[in-house]
């Protein structure tokens, strides 16, 4: 009898905790298809909040993947100079801008930068992330605990794999692919 009560207690506890955990999902539309992203609200709450704010405000729509290195990552998110729909668009400056919001304090964690992980781009200052982010193509352990990972692709990684690659050591992309839209999943 006691074992049954304990068992029921744990089942109820698990069910209640699971129902209170709300997954935050985003849909990234690319020319090749839709990508579903799960955000890590408990791990990097400030980065998730910023990402959602910019995405749901339409700030990422039309932003180019300005730096794409085969076997490493695809970087985007420069809403100032990288937005192909904006009068400020300048491909030569893409990657140097951010949003009008203040930079974020680092939220480093033990999340491994494995295939499909989203992480915030930054300068050499760990507290300089703003709007730019990247998606990892393959495991990149040298980024672990040095960049703020805040999400992961859960569906559609094959469409990320189709993003046009850049040239040279910095991965600059000529005539780059862009984000069609990025919004919270309804």
Task: Provide a descriptive summary of the structure in words.
By secondary structure, this protein is of the alpha+beta class. It has one domain (23-184): Cyclophilin. 19% of the residues lie in helices and 22% in strands. The chain has an eight-stranded antiparallel β-sheet with strand order 3-4-6-5-7-2-1-8. The longest helix is centred in the N-terminal third of the chain and has 19 residues, at 2-20. The chain starts with a helix and ends with a strand. Residues 16-21 have low confidence and may be disordered.
Summarize the structure.
The chain has a single domain (23-184), classed as Cyclophilin-like (Cyclophilin, Beta Barrel), CATH 2.40.100. Helices cover 19% and strands 22% of the residues. The chain has helices spanning 2-20, 45-56, 157-160, and strands at residues 24-30, 33-39, 67-69, 73-76, 117-120, 133-136, 149-155, 181-184.
């Amino acid at each position: 009898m006691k074992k049954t009560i304990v068992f029921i207690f744990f089942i109820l506890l698990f069910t209640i905790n699971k129902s209170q955990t709300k997954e935050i999902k985003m849909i990234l539309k690319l020319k090749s298809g839709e990508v579903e992203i799960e955000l890590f609200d408990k791990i990097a709450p400030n980065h998730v909040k910023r990402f959602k704010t910019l995405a749901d405000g339409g700030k990422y729509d039309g932003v180019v993947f300005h730096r794409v290195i085969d076997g490493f990552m695809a970087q985007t998110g420069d809403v100032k100079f990288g937005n192909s729909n904006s009068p400020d668009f300048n491909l030569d400056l893409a990657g140097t801008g951010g949003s009008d919001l203040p930079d974020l304090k680092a939220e480093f964690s033990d999340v491994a930068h494995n295939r499909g992980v989203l992480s915030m781009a930054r300068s050499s200052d760990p507290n300089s992330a703003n709007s730019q982010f990247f998606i990892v193509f393959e495991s990149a352990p040298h980024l672990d605990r040095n960049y703020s990972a805040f999400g992961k692709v859960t569906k559609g990684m094959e469409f990320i794999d189709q993003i046009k690659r850049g040239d040279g050591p910095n991965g600059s992309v000529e005539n780059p692919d862009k984000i069609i839209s990025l919004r919270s999943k309804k």
